[in-house]
Amino acid sequence: MRRVAVLTAGCSALAVLVGLGAGRAYFSAPSAPTAAASSELTTGAIATRWPTPASEAPKSPAPPIQPVVAKEPAAMPAPAPAPAPAQQACTNPNALGISRTVEIDTTGGPGLGLSQYRDYDFLEPGEVALTFDDGPWPVNTPAVLAALANECVKAVFFPIGKHSSWHPAILKQVVAAGHTVGSHTWSHVNLAIKPFAEAKTEIEKGISGTVLAAGQPTSPFFRFPQLRQTPELKAYLGERNIATFSIDIDSEDFRIHKPEQLITGVMTKLKKAGKGIILMHDFQKSTAQALPELLSQLKAGGYKVVFLTAKDRVTTLPEYDAQVQPAQQPTASNARPINSVIRTVSGTK
């Protein structure tokens, strides 16, 4: 396995309030060959590695953490280094596949995505990174997972904490498929207009809710809703060693609901930019419908998919673990057997 590193300069102090998507709302609901030589150079925030052969993949995933009891909050176990994702056998001989895997050292909270951050321009011409916000969501997220699996590619998902608490089984499907999971606040509010304490709670509850729903520590990756941030919040994420993600290509799938128009828009922007982190939403039906053809066109256009992973795992804070527990705990039921309450009295079942 070959690793190439790009030197870093620590936490980026850049904090730009971007005009992209001003006032918009994203949702309405409450492979390349393995290098033969073995060499390594790791001196910075972003390192690249070619996919590991299946025979070298980890034998078993990191064990799931046990939920924290709300009555007596306790810190989750110290995060273990993130293992390299298992390389699943690709059954599609014509799949797009993963060109390379990039590992990010999130120490100091680097910013990634040229729309807002310029320190780490790590993608080469013709390379794309696929990212999905606002999930998990029934039907749409599983459809996105199926399309990615068919083309043997991996992506980064930025789920909403509240959505994760509603659909933990779907989030676990994302994790089981080997994708990277970050976070995207608890309820997708514009943090730039919130008091710092309220914004911090949104960030931390989103992290805790996502980790609890995933059943294991996730990656220290974060994306601001609507890409709205403040210098104070960016600095806070740096203190927490959480990387902040912006974008390069906006699919605008929050407003474009015809799959063919969505595909044309992404490919047109990508042709102009030449490379980039693509923003999509697994919450959106149009994205789920468009993705198979979009991946096909990426392959036809000669684009290569770069999979983004984290060097370490995120650490949750006990007070916020306790706050998200009620949303995760099923309510006790004293219901009688259904046939003693409901029965068919006429017609056929």
Mean pLDDT: 81
- Give the overall shape, derived from the CA principal axes: globular
- The secondary-structure class comes to alpha/beta
Number of DSSP strands? 12
Low-confidence stretches: 1-43, 52-86
Number of helices: 8
Q: Which range does the strand content fall in? A: 5-15%
Run of helices and strands: EEEEEHEHHEHEHEEHEHEH
Biggest sheet features: 9 strands, mixed
N-to-C CA distance: 60 Å
Measured as a percent range, the helix fraction is 25-40%
What integer value in Å does the Rg equal?
21 Å
Q: Could you give a short description of this structure?
A:
By secondary structure, the chain is an alpha/beta fold.
For this entry, give a set of tags.
disordered N terminus, nine-stranded mixed beta sheet, 28% helix, 8 helices, alpha/beta, three-stranded parallel beta sheet, 349 residues
Description:
α1 runs parallel beside α7 (285-300), α3 (168-176) packs across α4 and α4 (196-214) crosses α8. Strands 1, 2, 3, 5, 6, 7, 10, 11 and 12 form a 9-stranded mixed β-sheet that branches. The chain has a 3-stranded parallel β-sheet with strand order 4-9-8, with helices on one face. By secondary structure, it is α/β, with parallel strands linked by helices. The protein is built from 8 helices and 12 strands. The radius of gyration is 21 Å and the shape is globular.
